[in-house]
What does this fold into?
Amino acid sequence: MPLPTIEWEGDITGRIRLIDQTLLPTELKFVYCDDIKSIWHAIKTLMVRGAPAIGIAGAMGVVLGAKNIHTNDTTTFLKELRHVTEYLGSSRPTAVNLFWGLARMERVALENKDKPVKEIKEILLLEATKIQEEDKAICRQIGEHGAGLIKEGDGVLTHCNAGGLATADYGTALAVIFKAKEHGRHFKVFADETRPLLQGARLTVWELMHADIDATLICDSMAAHVMKLGKIQCVIVGADRIAANGDTANKIGTYGVSILAKEHNIPFYVAAPVSTFDLTIKSGEDIPIEERSPEEVTCGFGKRTAPEGVKVFNPAFDVTPAKNIAAIITERGVIHKPSHKNIQSVLGNHGS
Ligand code: MRU
It folds into this structure.
């Protein structure tokens, strides 16, 4: 990524600066968030998006919330901080990284409850920036672990955006692609445009072109044909929540791509940090799927493309069953044939 996706500016009295991803690729502009309402809005409207990035946004949002709690009484502070995390958690339901980031911040506040409020606020800021720094390292480890899965001359298909914009700065699925290129391999990447919000068209190909990677944009409906033509040797996508048995929620359309990959004997890989695993959930059936506004389908980017009043169903994510996934690439290693047992042998009993 040419610029960090999201950053904290200044000390505890500071603010969040993030790239407004709704404007890309035509405008590269920053948005500044000074309170929890503005960061909630930025997450909800996808100005900042992608599971790890909203985990960081949530953590930094907690710092904004803490900054605006005016009390010296620790018990009152912790009570109000709870309202902050609950509020931020109501922005988007599917990506577990958001809840992971919020829980980690709350845990740190509780661990330091014997300190003065001012000091707890500073500790929270340190923790949020630590989460961001860790994410940078984790993405690079994911890239290293997965890079060998892309062979010389391959065609790689990806769906949605799991790049630098979806993380602190380097991506998960795209990290594998960036590292394979750094290792000197030559290959082509096909990016699904990703209806209805076009994260593939607007964000993924933008990032790939910046990184000088051979990128070709296709409509979602072309993936089967492109596979049949023999142009794809592997699929790599990101994830929003991975259940204990390996079932994986990711951007709507991912499940369909996994079925197409199976039909064409193409390995389907998921790249994700450990913070995307939700080991409290047994299978994908329990993953909450966000439903978004009908206008995203009927009136995308301000142009009406369906009759007024038509009924619309707009789930933002779907679940790919573990049986369709050849491997999950994490910072701790590659989990081949994901299952409860194989996940535990790489992650241990604890997700993070
Ligand atoms: O609705 P979005 O754009 O937040 O959806 C993002 C995805 O589905 C990504 O593939 C996923 O979060 C992984 S990002 C590394």
User: Anything to note?
Assistant: The radius of gyration is 20 Å. The chain has two domains: 6-140, 147-347. The longest helix spans residues 117-147. The mean pLDDT is 97.
